[in-house]
Design a protein that fits this description.
The protein is mainly α. 74% of the residues lie in helices and 3% in strands. It is globular. The model is unreliable at 284-289 (pLDDT under 50).
Length: 289
């Protein structure tokens, strides 16, 4: 039983990182219909920037803030240069454009930081024993911050004027235009949100999974699977889907084979797209996959 609890907690911790990336996918897709394949690169870039800033002598919090700010800026530039100029944006077009940005970001990270993976120092050192399971202190930070950000994002969409405007753009874009809501500004704001949550996922994951020029690929794919489980239109569904994915990966690695960990995500994605394309936690009317 203790092994099961240990693996489950580790999976929930991993799922918290995936959830932040999945929120970024949903934030962009619901507003503009864009599937941002560069979302994982936001995470990798933020981690590498924070590592370099901390290595230059900056306090950890300041280094993380620099990483998040620069990634948000990259997201803004990406939206202005590649998404905004396209008048008719189909899903296929968005995939091609964002794949190009993803490749460019990978190349830039490889040139600047080289091929070796590195990790940001944990927010807290040490191990904690709870109910017979061993928990790394940093994993508690991941869970706490992921939960706090998820709650903040939900509050933003449900309680603020800007958040409700974004929801209006996703649900009734024509009506949103008629009442004066700018879809261009909404798209830009959605990319800022995606950049911030993706960057935060990167700095949280870095002490555990390490950061490199190619680490964003895995994180991005896992986040996309989590978002797809929610139908790509539900923040709550994306969070739940990401947690389910993290737990399934951890249990598979612990009880079956560690080599099958990554295969879980792709198998789950195929099954969901074939059997329930609106997502496990999405409503039929909301299906956009």
């Amino acid at each position: 039983m203790s092994d099961f609890l240990q693996l489950t907690f580790a999976g929930v911790s991993q799922g918290g990182v995936y959830a932040l990336i999945a929120i970024g996918f949903v934030a962009i897709f619901t507003v503009s219909g864009v599937i941002n394949l560069a979302q994982g690169e936001f995470a990798a870039l933020s981690g590498l920037i924070a590592i370099s800033a901390a290595g230059a002598g900056m306090p950890l919090i300041a280094a993380i803030a620099v990483g998040l700010a620069l990634v948000a800026l990259v997201a803004v530039v990406m939206e202005r240069l590649t998404i905004a100029p396209v008048r008719s944006m189909s899903t296929l077009t968005s995939i091609i454009l964002t794949l190009g940005v993803s490749t460019a970001l990978k190349a830039a990270m490889l040139l600047i930081w080289g091929p070796n993976a590195r990790g940001l120092r944990p927010f807290s050192e040490g191990l904690i024993e709870v109910a017979g399971i061993t928990i790394r202190a940093h994993e508690l930070w991941i869970l706490a911050i992921a939960a706090l950000v998820a709650a903040a994002v939900y509050w933003f969409y449900e309680k603020t004027v800007a958040g409700k405007a974004l929801k209006a753009c996703s649900e009734q874009p024509t009506a949103a235009r008629l009442v004066g809501i700018s879809l261009k500004r909404a798209s830009l704001l959605s990319f800022v949100i995606a950049g911030l949550v993706g960057g935060l996922a990167g700095v949280l994951a870095s002490p555990v999974f390490f950061s490199s020029w190619e680490s964003g690929l895995t994180l991005g794919l896992k986040g996309f699977v989590g978002a797809t489980l929610g139908g790509l239109v539900s923040i709550r569904g994306a969070i739940l889907g990401s947690l389910v994915l993290g737990v399934l990966e951890s249990l598979t690695a612990g009880y079956v084979d560690t080599g099958l960990r990554d295969a879980v995500a792709f198998l789950l994605l195929i099954v969901v797209l074939v059997v329930r394309p609106q997502g496990l936690f999405g409503r039929q009317a909301e299906a956009r996959v």
